[in-house]
Design brief:
Number of helices: 7
Order of helices and strands: EHEHHEHEHHEH
Oligomer: single chain
Largest sheet: 5 strands, parallel
Low-confidence stretches: none
CATH class: Alpha Beta
Radius of gyration: 14 Å
Length: 159
């Protein structure tokens, strides 16, 4: 079972991904840990990542999944082409897309402390986001609800 918890910044990927993995009894990885320092520095400075910046990172996310029988990784995976990179390494990946309004995301990003992602990049993430297609194994979950309900919806979708 390979699961990517995806969405734009502030959707709760790390929180939901970690709790979902615990509930399933499988390993969890925060995809941000796989970013090279250059990507972190670029985002911290308010510069959006390019597809070329993201490609090696997405490959590492797919590799992390492929190296284990079961795993949950938090990774934005905003475009179909990004998800395809992950699926090249881990073909049977299921995507849990956490989605909400711009206002909900903005409020969450503004409330975070110590994270490298500034609110100024939220627009570029929404601009980059491509909805999951019908042929992509996935579920779309509204984030404007308690975390426990989001995790339960994700759990039910992947079971």
């Amino acid at each position: 079972m390979h699961i990517v918890v995806m969405g734009v910044s502030g959707c709760g990927k790390s929180t939901v991904g970690c709790q979902l993995a615990k509930r399933l009894g499988i390993e969890y990885k925060d995809g941000d840990e796989l970013h090279p320092k250059e990507n972190i520095d670029k985002m911290r400075s308010g510069t959006p990542l390019t597809d070329a910046d993201r490609e090696p990172w997405l490959g590492l996310a797919g590799q992390w999944l492929s190296e284990r029988d079961d795993g949950v990784i938090a990774c934005s995976a905003l475009k179909r082409s990004y998800r395809d990179i992950i699926r090249k390494k881990a073909p049977n990946t299921f995507f849990v897309h956490l989605h909400g309004t711009y206002e909900v995301h903005l409020e969450r990003v503004q409330g975070r402390e110590g994270h490298f992602m500034p609110t100024s990049l939220l627009d570029s993430q929404f601009d980059t986001l491509e909805p999951l297609a019908d042929d992509e194994p996935s579920v779309l979950i509204d984030i404007d609800q308690p975390v426990e309900d989001i995790v339960e919806a994700a759990y039910q979708a992947v079971r």
